Amino acid sequence: MTMELCADAPLRLHLYVAGDTPAMQAALDCREVLLRRLGARIEIAVVDILADPQAARSAGILAVPALSDDTQAPPRRLVGHLGVPDQVLEHFDLQDGGTRS
User: Fold this and answer.
1) What is the DSSP letter of 55?
2) Quick one: average pLDDT of 68-92?
3) Confidence of residue 94 (pLDDT cuts 50, 70, 90)
4) Check whether domain 11-94 has CATH 3.40.30.10, yes or no
């Protein structure tokens, strides 16, 4: 089944990071690319687990950087290197055309 992403119902992801490291910067850079490419069809909230460790515990995050789609059960997550936006899009079944399967 294919679901259309639209401005009315953006996909909401959480990007869990910790501090300021090259891996975290790559994840934040990837976030910016995804936001530019998908626009209003996606929201990515950044959660710094050093500032909010309870958020990581509540979500069951054990490693960072982690990008999580908590709208699915179980949550769909991509953990580790997030520096290649096309791989992130593929992992979450997203296409620039705005479809999600």
Assistant:
1) H
2) 92
3) confident
4) yes
C-alpha–C-alpha distance, residues 80 and 22, integer Å: 12
pLDDT above 90 for 96: no
- Alpha-carbon dihedral angle through residues 92, 10, 39, 65, given to the nearest 10 degrees: -50
3-state secondary structure 82-101: CCCHHHHHHHCCECCCCEEC
d(C-alpha 24, C-alpha 89), whole Å:
18
CA 79 to CA 3: how far, in whole Å?
A: 24
Whole-number mean pLDDT of the chain?
A: 86
CB-based contact 101:2 (threshold 8 Å): yes
Q: Which two tokens stand for residue 96?
A: 């620039």
For the record, the structure tokens of 53 come out as 């460790």
